[in-house]
Queue: 2 jobs
Job 1
Amino acid sequence: MESIALLSPCEIGRFRFSHRIVLAPLTRSRSYGNLPQSHAILYYSQRATEGGLLIAEATGVPSDAQGMSLIPHTPGIWTKEQVEAWKPVVDAVHAKGGIFFCQIWHAGRVSDMEKEPISSTDKPVEKNEDDHVDCPIPRCLAVEEIPNVVNHFRVAAEMLWMLVLTGLKSMVPMVSFLSNS
Ligand SMILES: Cc1cc2nc3c(=O)[nH]c(=O)nc-3n(C[C@H](O)[C@H](O)[C@H](O)COP(=O)(O)O)c2cc1C
């Protein structure tokens, strides 16, 4: 029988995947107070398979990094309470043999809209006709402020270590956020 590449196993680094179908990170905007809720247990475990990769929705590093108005109710990973709230979600995925990565992010130009968001640029997000929120002009980070933002990722990574998630993936926009500065 002809083998289907998508369903064949592969190995990347220390990870062995039984197939190549991946749950892409999908922001759900249901983590009220930046805490994963119990319905996330069902959501992620339903999508977990033995040896399959799931990437969790974008998860905030410490608090001023959240997309408050434009992307509300995203989970975070900077307090012990958040770690505790993630635990049953991770356990449920692991119970089904799933490999669970967490995507950590800083919402940059769309973070903390009430105040002045920080970014690698002072250009606001361009509005298109579907948008209902005006994005403020962000404050361009000074070079000496960058280590503080990097430190937010370190704090989140330490929290994830406590959680023993299987992997860690940082959000691509954050990478450009740093490299443009
Ligand atoms: C509702 C929604 C939420 C999303 N949330 C995230 C997210 O949290 N992190 C991310 O990197 N991409 C996010 N994406 C992008 C999806 O992961 C992306 O659409 C998916 O990988 C498919 O790629 P494509 O849109 O280029 O076909 C989101 C997309 C949608 C539609």
Job 2
Amino acid sequence: MDNMTDHVPAETREPLVDSLAAVILLVVVPFGLLMPDEGAAAESSRPNILFIMVDDLGPEWISCYGGLEVKTPQIDALARGGMRFTNAYSMPQCTPTRVTLLTGQYPFHHGWCNHWDVPRWGAGCHFDPNKNMTFARLLRSVGYVTAIAGKWQINDFRVQPGVLKDHGFDEWCMWTGYEGQNPPSGQRYWDPYVFASGERSRTHKGQFGPDVYADFLVDFLRRHRDQPMLLYFPMVLTHGPQVHTPADPGAKTRLEKHKAMVRYTDRIVGRLVGTLDDLKLRRRTIVIFTTDNGTGKRFRARMRVGSTVRVVRGGKGLLTENGPWQPLIVNCPGTVPAGVVNDTLTDFTDMMPTFAELAGAELPRDLLVDGRSIAPVLLGKQKDGPRSWILAMGRGAAVLDEKGVRPTQVFTDRVLRDKRFKVLVEAGRVTRLVDLVDDPEEVTNLVGSSEPEHVAAIRKFSRVIAGFPKRDPRPRYSPTAPQAWDRKPTARSRR
Ligand SMILES: [Ca+2]
């Protein structure tokens, strides 16, 4: 298989010449130059960052966002003592969200426009550390000690046992993801199959995975309390399969189990915050709570919105608000203003530049980053962020052909929005405009309206869209060695 990033298809060269030049530079910049400076002194003035990201849970399940089905007192306390955002977007599904978060790039730049479950499907595709930067590497390069716990799914740890180190993590404790031809690896909850730094992957018999991952983070905090720390916690909760938890052993139905899992998520958040309190780290640790995409479609929840109660159906994979609209809560007593509800527009591309600013790290000049730092908002220096639009795209499984993994569409469907209007873009054109303030259910398509504000909204978003590549790229990677479990291209996918 060719290295698919060595050649950039001619049709992608037309738009965004500067950005593409940056992509190409990104591929060739020797990242060794950015490796950690072992001598960097640990400065207590630099905040720790604890980034907690739940799997498959929308704001309709969080009580401080109006969720009425379960109570989430620990998450609510973070919001009360910190800043709660009302206009934050992830991507609609796991892989696009995770790569976007790690790189600060949109899928139309990093190429992971669809889902590709690397440990399960392989085929040489992987999140290649030689061709992608991450926020973890950036922070490690300025002296942060870094950890990750939970779920990754964009590399196969059997094939690349050192890859988390290459991506910037000093220590880890991960569910491996389902590994093709390795059934025990299917377990992330009870009897979890865990890959921890310094160990081989193994089943932790009789244990509950979410406790194993949290135990590791608690231990990491204790051991490194005197150094600036980055902890990335992509939780395995609350993704299916639904299971009972140690706190709700009697949960029987799927819905009861789901609720138990939401409560357990809240409990783990409380446990980590309690550890920060115990270690006297609370006032120098920025805790961020969010989720990677909307809830699975089978679950509905009552949600209070103003004076009304809406029933919100899970929207994982959708481009309606229940797909990418997420809770985002940021807390650090004494540093992040308390009790603030903020409507800043922000999406997951903003996290890398935000972390960089908080940590005092410079973004490499040749690195293409789509997002903008919202650190001044978090620190109470500005009321509103720098963005005038946010974007979400990417769902469904990617296609495998003879050259490797590619997006399912030439120009992946996407939505852009501001604080009022939202557009759906298909094949490069705006096909839908909704007014989220007047029409939160997104029922009425205003394309074709002659109202000046509608015309202006379409014009505004169309100008943004005109700057996007006309063709979405493939993920950037040099293929890993062939494996017995690799998916093969089919007659259909070769087309
Ligand atoms: Ca997910």
